[in-house]
Amino acid sequence: MFTGIIEEVGCVRAVTPQQNGVELQIDASRVAGDLAPGASIAVDGVCQTVLDADARGFRVAAEAETLRVTSLGALRTGSRVNLERALAVGGRLDGHLVLGHVDGRARIVGMRRDARTHVLELEVSLELRPYVVAKGCIAVDGVSLTVGPRVDAGRFELYLIPYTWEHTTLHERRVGDRVNVETDVLARYVVHLLRGKPERSDLTWENLQRAFGGP
Prior knowledge:
Layout: E1 8-18, E2 21-27, H1 29-32, E3 40-43, E4 46-53, E5 57-63, H2 64-69, E6 80-85, E7 104-114, E8 117-123, E9 137-140, E10 143-152, E11 155-160, H3 162-166, E12 178-183, H4 185-196, H5 205-211
């Protein structure tokens, strides 16, 4: 379990092809000292298991399915990645509940600046649209963000404060890039219930939007 609060931006030291995926060696001295074999770490929002670690960094192995769904397959030596260690019991939940189970990739279709705020416009695939809720939570490349007030045909805006912009890799993205997206797990469960309980006449998307402040 993660929170979407990035602890360090690491650098990929090496990418080694394996029979069923790739092995990634990542330099990240700030978080590496607290990692042990078997620990979980989010790499650009993707939950990975640490194979080994030293003072300089750590090593993980991304399987074929992970490479298919996420952007980890595009990583190269020198790529920079957002990193977050698993949430410790009793720790502050400064972002939102993030599982590290990426739903898919979204495309950046617009970028602009509004005073000191950087605004990204994203477009998600048809299957992910029901899970993106206005003013709801979403993790983009592992970063906990709030969806803007409007969601239109799978497009929505994200507003990044200067600290988030400067301390994650999102400032390196450009229009046309694809980013890892994990929608809010609570939204996924709600949609699952809506689809599985047709006899509940009161459990409608409109009622849920009204209850949780949606449009």
